[in-house]
Amino acid sequence: MDWTLCRGHGLCADLAPGVVRLDPDGYPQQAAMALPARMRRRAQLAVRRCPALALRVRSPAE
């Protein structure tokens, strides 16, 4: 998540429920766990559809 780009659209939480959770203000919360392999496709969809281009999927080593 690039917090400087995020505008709190919430689309990421709709596309990847269980991976992205919104805080009380409607902004995504920091991920507390690694992305399960089964959710990678949904997460990549959320990345592509983020209107602010604020999401990225990265490897754990980054």
Q: Would you give an account of this structure?
A:
The structure is a single chain. With 62 residues, the chain is mainly α. It contains 2 helices and no strands. The radius of gyration is 11 Å and the shape is globular. 13% of the residues are buried.
How do the SSEs run, as a string of H and E?
HH
The count of strands amounts to 0
Large-scale geometry = globular
Percent range for β-strand residues:
under 5%
Uncertain ranges: none
Assembly context of the chains: single chain
Helix content: 10-25%
How far apart are the termini? Answer: 13 Å
> What structural class is derived from the secondary structure elements?
mainly alpha
- What Rg do the Cα atoms give? 11 Å
Q: What is the overall pLDDT average?
A: 82
Q: How can the largest sheet be summarized?
A: none
Number of helices: 2
What descriptors fit this protein?
mainly alpha, globular, single chain, 0% strand, 62 residues
Sum this structure up briefly:
This protein has helices at about 10-15, 40-50.
List the helices and strands and how they pair.
Blueprint: H1 11-15, H2 40-49
